[in-house]
């Protein structure tokens, strides 16, 4: 894929990572983590990439008919995010333990996951939670606090030292706490400073009071937005007064804190390093200049924040564009940018699906008429089929694509490599459950052909029965019969003797079974039964014409028996069959000498038969005549 | 039945087997082996469910199973059996049969012995050599019997390089599973619905007995012998049907029980409580069949969330007259008196449950959803 340098927050090239074991147990859905091998997707993955597959979410949502509550969707969204976070944690622990040499690779892996969670979280706030003015800022604050987390390690450092307020990073810590709106903690820090240097205790107290009295919207609060605005305005003016009076002139640190709390852009920009990115800058700016910002006004602030923060020194990263699009509530743009930037269909497919459930996506008609959600799910599912073991999941995804899912499944499922019968059975079961009879037939045919090539005639027959493929059953039977003609005996008697009702699948198969039965009867010396069976095989036309000569030859020993077995009527029938056969002999394209030889053998056989039949007829007539007479 | 633990292991599990306990031991099962399939790299793994007491890094606790060691396996693991305490025999889709040895001191597995061309369509000597998957393996120290898609039966002995006995073309279809009856006799099931008994004392290549259903030739996938009554055998078929056979009585099954909605992959009699039988299937369920003639009140213990419980009568396909001192409930012919209680053990339907094993109060099973389920309280 396209590789962009700069901050490694979103690397476009997929990273190489070893397969590791991820084990966790989650509530509503089944979660799987695995490798994706080199996929055949255009410019996407060229290397293995760890990603997460979520199974049951779509299913759960589909089952909730009618109104899907916003709270449920938010819960689902949070689940997705937990998955991403758990993946990040596992990545970190496993890679650190097993393969420190791959440090760079795994850290970009983790940063990709972190970016994914960042984007998803913002989408959740803006599109799913749909926070209104007031709570919106609180959510955004949480969002920033979650993703800029150097604070905690810094805090541990400073507090752990003997003299926290004398620590090098003390003021950095206080500043960043203020930037993140964590004013209570900032106050606690200041009280330590007040204790340590009594000279500044006074102004520390004043600053502490200012921090304490800043009006914020708390979840249980019943005040209206207007009330909050009013109170905040008052507080803001108080801060202004302190600035004008140069109250904090003796302490540059405190003065700069004051300016931050007044939302002074220059002061904020001085803290670029602590802010570390433009969206932190944005949220802090909003916190201290317009806490009751409305969602629709977000994008003004977003764009200007980005511009101010970058200051013309660098250009926006793909991640920045995605976040901007989100602030502009341009969902399609978000999805489009994500598709390009992340070589990972999982993310866009699932995010789009979730947003679709929020009824946020208009039917964005692509040229083949499917909507965007389905398009992305199809792409994702196709990717799963490219993986050796994830095809079963791919099936589930195709099931949830109403327009093209079935067709796609039909195409993909026939191309799954089947190296064992057990796998073939699973694939067939998938097809049968969806009434994909064509695919069942074609898969069974391939398996049956393979079995015939390997001389596993029983298996071949078993596949023909499964597919109810009469034509193939005929083919297998012909094989058996050919073997019999060549060798003079049946192979695989265990199969032919025990065909059972499967015999009815094809005429040829029935013939095979019956023919074998004839041999059995002959072996048991049940000559009369054997004789009538043999005759019926020919007269009922169930025997292939090519086999009639063999059948008639089989009749010879019966005709030559001491007692008369074939009745006159039966003998007439046999004669009729013989004439029928000899009058329409096919012409072979053989050389003259061979033809003559064959003719010789044929003629001899026919002559013998005619003789036997005539003799038998004579004896039968006499016998029947004398029986009637007496 | 409570407390079934699931663990997702990022490989599709084809086989799970408890390590056997030393004879006379009073411990409960602690270690099990799994084999995977369908991945680019498949593994044989050993897991432990010993008591850990404290929380581990996963936040898992007492019931959670931990990986002890694993080793790469070429091809899908088609079947797995413990040969003894330390050795595991694995059947591969490449037609190879491997004996793995477990070294408990440094927790590793190594290859102890291998028969690489145990199963094939065209032999190793010919230029168009093609291997065939080995589908089933059964052990009875020191003997190992294997069967495969090539319709071949092999009798190996541990530490013997060549097969002791091979029956080529024992079957014209695929042999799916094999079990020992009485020691020199084995029983195989195939994909045209036949059971065949083979006696290794006889020289020929013919089975000594063939049994089958009269109906459709539904392929049979699994077989297990009753632990105490060596003539009673249970089979599972492609249509999910469970059949109980008495091999001394005619050629037909004694009972046919409509069970799963798709292929039944494994059937197991409980080794110490043979009134209990377990089956697992492609339809994603695992069933516990309880034929013990206890009081009916027992049913109330099973009506707890997420499980279904039904009563089912035997359906008898023939009137077998059984004269024996100990009548197995499975063979009993009185439908009114004998009811089998069936419980579904997994909390929710998932992808196929490919394998299960029971030992004492412990059950382990593996699924295509890349999960291993363990419970240590089967009969609570």
From TrEMBL, chain A:
Name the UniProt record assigns to this protein: Nuclear pore complex protein Nup85
Pfam families: Nucleopor_Nup85
Species assigned in the record: Pan troglodytes (Chimpanzee)
This protein's UniProt keywords: Membrane, mRNA transport, Nuclear pore complex, Nucleus, Protein transport, Translocation, Transport
GO cellular component, one term: nuclear membrane
UniProt family annotation: Belongs to the nucleoporin Nup85 family.
GO biological process: mRNA transport; protein transport
Top-level taxonomy: Eukaryota, Metazoa, Chordata, Craniata, Vertebrata
Domain of life: Eukaryota
Subunit structure: Component of the nuclear pore complex (NPC).
PANTHER family to which the protein is assigned, alphabetical: FROUNT PROTEIN-RELATED (PTHR13373), NUCLEAR PORE COMPLEX PROTEIN NUP85 (PTHR13373:SF21)
Cell location: Nucleus, Nuclear pore complex
Major location (coarse): nucleus
Role noted for this protein: Functions as a component of the nuclear pore complex (NPC).
TrEMBL record, chain B:
Mapped WD repeat ranges: 213-255, 257-299
Keyword Glycosyltransferase included in the entry's annotation: no
Alphabetized UniProt keyword annotations: Nucleus, Repeat, WD repeat
Main location as per UniProt: nucleus
InterPro entries referenced in this protein's UniProt entry, alphabetically: WD40/YVTN_repeat-like_dom_sf, WD40_repeat_CS, WD40_repeat_dom_sf, WD40_rpt
GO CC terms: cytosol; kinetochore; nuclear pore outer ring; nuclear speck
Cellular localization per UniProt: Nucleus
Gene3D superfamilies: YVTN repeat-like/Quinoprotein amine dehydrogenase
Pfam family, one: WD40
Protein name as annotated: NUP43 isoform 2
Organism: Pan troglodytes
Designated gene of the protein: NUP43
């Amino acid at each position: 894929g396209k590789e962009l340098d700069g901050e490694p927050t979103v690397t476009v090239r997929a990273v190489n990572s070893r397969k590791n074991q991820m084990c966790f147990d989650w509530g509503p859905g089944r979660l799987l983590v695995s490798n994706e091998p080199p996929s055949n997707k255009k410019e996407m993955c060229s290397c293995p990439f760890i990603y997460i597959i979520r199974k049951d979410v779509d299913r759960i949502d589909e089952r909730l008919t009618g109104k899907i509550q916003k709270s449920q969707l938010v819960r689902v969204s949070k689940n997705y995010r937990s998955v991403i976070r758990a993946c990040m944690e596992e990545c970190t622990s496993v890679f650190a333990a097993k393969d420190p040499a791959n440090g760079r690779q795994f850290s970009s892996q983790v940063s990709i996951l972190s970016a994914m969670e960042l984007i998803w979280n913002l989408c959740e706030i803006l599109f799913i939670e749909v926070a209104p003015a007031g709570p919106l800022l609180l959510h955004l604050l949480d969002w920033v606090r979650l993703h800029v987390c150097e604070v905690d390690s810094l805090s541990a450092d400073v507090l752990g030292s003997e003299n926290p307020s004398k620590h090098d990073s003390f003021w950095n810590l206080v500043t960043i706490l203020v930037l993140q709106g964590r004013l209570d903690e900032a106050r606690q820090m200041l009280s330590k400073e007040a204790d340590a240097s009594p000279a500044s205790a006074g102004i520390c107290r004043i600053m502490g009071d200012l921090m304490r009295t800043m009006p914020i919207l708390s979840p249980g609060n019943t005040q209206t937005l207007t009330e909050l605005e009013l109170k905040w305005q008052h507080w803001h003016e108080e801060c202004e007064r302190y600035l004008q009076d140069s109250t904090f002139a003796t302490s540059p640190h405190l003065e700069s804190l004051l300016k931050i709390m007044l939302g002074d852009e220059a002061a904020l920009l001085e803290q670029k390093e602590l802010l570390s990115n433009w969206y932190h800058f944005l949220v802090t700016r909003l916190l201290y200049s317009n806490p009751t910002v409305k969602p629709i006004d977000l994008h003004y602030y977003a764009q200007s924040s980005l511009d101010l923060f970058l200051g013309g020194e660098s250009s926006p990263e793909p991640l920045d564009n995605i976040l901007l699009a989100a602030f502009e509530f341009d969902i399609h743009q978000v999805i489009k940018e994500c598709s390009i930037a992340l070589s990972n269909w999982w993310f866009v497919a699932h995010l789009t699906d979730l947003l679709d459930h929020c009824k946020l996506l208009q039917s964005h008609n692509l040229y083949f008429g499917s909507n965007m959600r389905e398009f992305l799910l199809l792409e994702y599912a196709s990717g799963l089929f490219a993986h050796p073991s994830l095809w079963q999941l791919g099936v589930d995804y195709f099931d949830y694509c109403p327009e093209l899912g079935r067709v796609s499944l039909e195409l993909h499922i026939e191309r799954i490599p089947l190296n064992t019968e057990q796998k073939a059975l699973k694939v067939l079961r998938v097809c049968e459950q969806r009434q994909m009879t064509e695919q069942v037939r074609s898969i069974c045919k391939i398996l049956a052909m393979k079995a015939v090539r390997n001389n596993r005639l029983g298996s071949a027959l078993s596949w023909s029965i499964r597919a109810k493929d009469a034509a193939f059953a005929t083919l297998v039977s012909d094989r058996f019969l050919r073997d019999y003609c060549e060798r003079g005996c049946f192979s695989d008697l265990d199969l032919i003797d025990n065909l059972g009702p499967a015999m009815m699948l094809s005429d040829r198969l029935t013939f095979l079974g019956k023919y074998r039965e004839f041999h059995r009867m002959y072996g048991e010396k049940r000559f009369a039964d054997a004789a009538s069976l043999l005759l019926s095989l020919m007269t009922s036309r169930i025997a292939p014409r090519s086999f009639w000569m063999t059948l008639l030859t089989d009749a010879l020993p019966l005709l030559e028996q001491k007692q008369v077995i074939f009745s006159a009527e039966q003998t007439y029938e046999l004669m009729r069959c013989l004439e029928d056969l000899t009058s329409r002999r096919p012409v072979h394209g053989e050389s003259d000498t061979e033809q003559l030889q064959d003719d010789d053998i044929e003629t001899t056989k026919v002559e013998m038969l005619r003789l036997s039949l005539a003799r038998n007829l004579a004896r039968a007539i006499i016998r029947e005549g004398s029986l009637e007479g007496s | 039945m409570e407390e079934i633990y699931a663990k997702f292991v990022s490989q599709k599990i084809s086989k799970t087997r408890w390590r056997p306990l030393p004879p006379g031991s009073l411990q409960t099962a602690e270690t099990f082996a799994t084999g995977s399939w369908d991945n680019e790299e498949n593994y044989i793994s050993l897991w432990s469910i010993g008591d850990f007491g404290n929380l581990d890094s996963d936040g898992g606790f007492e019931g959670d199973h931990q990986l002890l060691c694993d080793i790469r396996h070429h091809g899908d693991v088609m079947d797995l059996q413990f040969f003894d305490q330390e050795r595991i025999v694995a059947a591969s889709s490449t037609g190879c049969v491997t004996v793995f040895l477990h070294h408990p001191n440094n927790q590793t597995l190594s290859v102890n012995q291998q028969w690489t061309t145990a199963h094939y369509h065209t032999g190793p000597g010919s230029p168009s050599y093609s291997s065939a998957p080995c589908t089933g393996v059964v052990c009875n120290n020191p003997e190992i019997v294997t069967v495969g898609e090539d319709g071949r039966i092999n009798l190996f002995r541990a530490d013997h390089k060549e097969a002791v006995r091979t029956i080529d073309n024992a079957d014209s279809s695929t042999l799916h599973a094999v079990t020992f009856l009485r020691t020199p006799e084995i029983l195989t099931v195939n994909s045209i619905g036949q059971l065949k008994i083979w006696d290794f004392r006889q020289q020929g290549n013919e089975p000594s007995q063939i049994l089958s259903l009269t109906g459709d030739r539904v392929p049979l996938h699994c077989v297990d012998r009753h632990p105490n009554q060596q003539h009673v055998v249970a089979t599972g078929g492609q249509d999910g049907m469970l059949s109980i056979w008495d091999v001394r009585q005619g050629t037909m099954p004694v009972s046919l029980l409509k069970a799963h909605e798709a292929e039944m992959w494994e059937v197991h009699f409980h080794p110490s409580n043979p009134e209990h039988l377990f089956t697992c299937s492609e339809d994603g369920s695992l069933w516990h069949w309880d034929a013990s003639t206890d009081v009916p009140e027992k049913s109330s213990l099973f009506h707890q969330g997420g499980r279904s419980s039904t009563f089912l009568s035997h359906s008898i396909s023939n009137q077998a007259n059984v004269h024996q001192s100990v009548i197995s409930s499975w063979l009993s012919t009185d439908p009114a008196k004998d009811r089998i209680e069936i419980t579904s053990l997994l909390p929710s339907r998932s992808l196929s449950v490919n394998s299960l094993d029971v030992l004492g109060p412990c059950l382990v099973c593996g699924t295509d959803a890349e999960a291993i389920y363990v419970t240590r309280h089967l009969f609570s």
